[in-house]
Amino acid sequence: MMTNEQANELFRQYRKTGDKSVRNKLVENYMYIAEILAKKFAGRGVEYDDLLQVASEALILGVEKFDPDMGNQFTTYVTPTITGMIKNYFRDYSRSVRLPRRIYTLGTRIKNETNEYYKQYGVKPTVKQLAEKLGESEEAVMEAMESRHPVSLDGTVQNEDGDGVLYDVIPDPVDSFEKFDDAQSLKDEIKKLSPTEQKVVALRFVQGKSQSEVGKILGVSQMFVSRAERKIVEKLKEALSQ
């Protein structure tokens, strides 16, 4: 176990160099905090190993963000961070479809890093910037972001006429989803689409990307995306008319 002075020297070294081996030494030194807090919340319907994974991710985040020259001890600084992430995990655990632990923890790190980046620069980081900062692939970051933010029918997107929602941006000739009264049923039917079709919905109608942009992301032609849109809408209209 390091003394506070020894640990603070390593914190300063990590802040200066970003050396992951230094970070890992600090994480190992303070892992007992994650273990204690995970045990504290165990036995409430979630396995201890799952809670320890969440607590460990929070500990890593705390190590990465801690400034030893701000006057606080690390144990005092990191305990609320770990506790908060565990409580958030319990909140999200009640979802009908639980995210894989790896995706959940990465998504939490992405959320925290995005908030920090926005506070510092006033804009949100790109997927590439997040991937570099978190030491993950761009594909992993995108997967976590999409999993934590499933298709939302009332999510605002930008179209040629200004802001709109998914109901408003489905193109002709199928005349959008405005005819559907039951939004929840529509959401349920979207979940039944194939992974590729769900990606098309998310990219086109939530993120507001053009058909050409979607085609490049998925590695298909613009014509394929256009046909996929028509097919998706027809499938949903048929399902909801029954």
Automatic annotation (TrEMBL):
One of the record's GO molecular function terms: sigma factor activity
Keyword Ubl conjugation (UniProt): no
SUPFAM superfamilies (alphabetical): Sigma2 domain of RNA polymerase sigma factors (SSF88946), Sigma3 and sigma4 domains of RNA polymerase sigma factors (SSF88659)
Keyword terms, alphabetized: DNA-binding, Sigma factor, Transcription, Transcription regulation
BP-aspect Gene Ontology terms: DNA-templated transcription initiation
Domain RNA polymerase sigma-70: 210-236
InterPro entries named in the record: RNA_pol_sigma-70_dom, RNA_pol_sigma70, RNA_pol_sigma70_r2, RNA_pol_sigma70_r3, RNA_pol_sigma70_r4, RNA_pol_sigma_r2, RNA_pol_sigma_r3/r4-like
PANTHER family recorded: RNA POLYMERASE SIGMA-E FACTOR, SIGMA FACTOR F FLAGELLAR
Protein name per UniProt: Sigma-70 family RNA polymerase sigma factor
Protein species of origin: Candidatus Coproplasma excrementigallinarum
